[in-house]
Amino acid sequence: MNNTGFVFRQPPHGTSSGREGLDALLAASAYSEALSVFFIGDGVLQLVKHQQPEAILSRNYIVTFKMLPLYDIENIYVCQQSLNERGLSVDDLLIDVIICSHSELVTALHCCRQILTF
Known about the structure:
- By secondary structure, the protein is an alpha/beta fold.
- It has helices spanning about 15-30, 80-85, 100-110, and strands at about 5-10, 35-40, 75-80, 100, 110-115.
- It has a five-stranded parallel β-sheet.
- Helix 2 links the parallel strand 3 (about 75-80) and strand 4 (about 100).
- The radius of gyration is 13 Å and the shape is globular.
């Protein structure tokens, strides 16, 4: 499997990297179906339900992650260790994901031909 991996490592709303990563992911989906998305470290916070970015005068782009299945993006991996370290569970996430251990996530990353990190 020679696909492209998109890695989200930054928390939402502190920088524009999360929004830029999501835009790049959706744009890439027009050219390829071989896409995988990884949420590691603070990147898992991108998927937390019930965020209120308006309180800090930020745009609410998080709900756009719900569109990933419409773009045929189904390989969405979240690091279990990252969730645990932040006191989160799969029930706290906005979309359906594949929860995996750090080693499983690294194995999936190695299947990617290109990796873009946001």
